[in-house]
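User: Here's a protein and a ligand (beta-D-galactopyranose). What would the complex look like?
Assistant: Let me lay out the input and then the predicted complex.
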Amino acid sequence: MTSPSVDGPFVPGPAFDGWLPGVDGICYGGDYNPEQWPEEVWEQDVALMREAGVNLVSVGIFSWALLEPREGEFDFAWLDRLFDLLHANGIRVDLGTPTASPPAWFFRRYPQARVVTKDGTVMGFGSRGMAAPTSPEYRAAAVRIATELAERYGAHPALALWHVHNEYGAPVSDDYSENARRAWPLWLQHRYGSLEALNAAWGTRFWGQVYGEWDEVDVPAASPSVVNPAQRLDFARFTDAMLRECFTAERDVIRARSSVPVTTNFMAVACPATDLFAWGREVDVVSNDHYLWAADPRNHVTLALAADLTRSVAGGKPWMLLEHSSSGVNWQPRNVAKRPGEELRNAMSHLGRGADAIMFFQWRASRSGAEKFHSAMLPHAGTRSRVWREVVELGATLGRLGEVVGSRTQADVALLWDQESLWAQGLEWRPSADLQAGERIQTFYDRLWRDGLTVDLARPSQDLSAYRLVVAPASYLLTAADAANLTAYVEGGGTLLVSCFSGIVDEHDRVHEGGFMAPLRTALGVWVEEFLPLREGERVTLEGLGDPLHATVWADDLVLEGAEVVATYADGPAPGGPAVTRHQAGAGKGWYLSTVLDADALAPLMARVYADAGLTPTLLPDDVEVLRRVSDDAEYTIAINHSPVDVRLPVPAGTTDLLSAGATSTDSTSGTTTVPAGEVRVLRAPR
Ligand code: GAL
């Protein structure tokens, strides 16, 4: 294998090293939509914000119809008054560009800018959602309103952050309109240079799809059977690129007029349309929105994954939680309310994973509209409510944690996350519908979470040498360069664990030559002769890792090329065949798991893998997480007890409890602290 990549390793995170100007301590606040209320209410809002310790609010996100009531006619008077009111009260502004929701006049005037779904349905007005990202009229209008806002407020002393758009990719991502049909072949021409190259990359000789002219290449709309997967994969890339072009166009006119940093709020894990590692390079500060999935009883683990992904996309720099909820949301089938203490635990988990901003959707609950049953910092019940009391308490808590700002999280483990691979694996006609990349990532993450290990998410093209362990739960698409990077990581002394159906195709969804998983055979000492997917509900037994383990979904017929067999199949389609292998490659170890184990069954395997990696898992009580952030002179421990029982945890010597006003609740002789059921501790130790 040769060097990883001619372009050098991918480096995640924004180039910008600064933070929000003028915000002291942790940012605290939320989306503020005062245009829904008479102006008398604004005064009350601001007084209550001060009571709650709010220092930053996001405004203007859905205000286009008020700011530009007719095309080219602007009305900033109300926003001027709002800026001044907030400024006079020491509250900083995160100013939205309202381009996620163009006004009614826009769609009436430019009906051709409306999004068209895969089956040809033209999206109507009366909801929200941007126009087609490829629409020239939309792009011009978006850049115009962003320019107006930047000129007017770019140097306002209250301005701390630009919030371009809202959640690119939701609710609009794929678009099959005439605008998209025009932009798509142009994008392909730029990518491939010639039709010959496109025909080769897409393998169009299959099913007789060879293109002779560029205008024959159509968007992959509804079709009689499965569309060429390479075409679908490129369409996902194209969609992401078009959304990103909308963002950078707004960002650039803002940057030309204002030195205040620019963000756009991501939806880590929840929005598959955007390749967040690519987006993380484009913003100044990474920000994320996160909502618990109420039906999941252990949704604090999915929260943790989203937060770790956001930090990783930020390249480890501090990031902002720009939206979450004080209690239930309104858009799930059953919108379970948060119970006392849960909001604080959620906030602290984000903070413990690197967030220096804890923000909500939204400040005051709306009386009208689609989101009136969504919780808010100031709920319909007003200030005589549990939610309000907890919001005030959280503000006070964050106020005591200002010194944590800027400290960093350090991870020993990288879990690979490659959006292109996720797009590709999610297409149709894979060997088993039961093998889901998202489930594999979540399950491996859950195992690492339970073992108390801090995890970064990483692209396979990154420099991975700082990690003791790299886990590839779902690397179906792996370029030759990425595989070389992983091989170099192992040969340099790293430990790599690869899960089934990885290293199968290249960037065009073409099967790698040399047998399945061939690009990883040097690192793993094994390759796959044939996939052996299991029937629905079928279980197979693995022997060799202590008690027999049950596995589901998948098995492989493996060909060993130097790897030792750690576990074998006792039954199923390959009885007696290898199921788990371990290989010494250079100075490191390459592990391969050829089937699907749940988080419990992964435990004995991971214990062996950790031993190779020199990692010691932390034996924590169930549903307790202990997070660490470090600065030059201090180490912060954030301990969160999601369980219904009190727990005692070891603490470093000289620890101070930051939440009990300087007093220490730690027992210095025993070196432990109690975290009562449902509570959190934030401790500082010198470094
Ligand atoms: C977010 C969105 C907000 C609000 C929120 C409700 O995805 O950015 O505007 O709709 O969901 O949970």
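Summary: Residues 1-5 have pLDDT under 50 and may be disordered.
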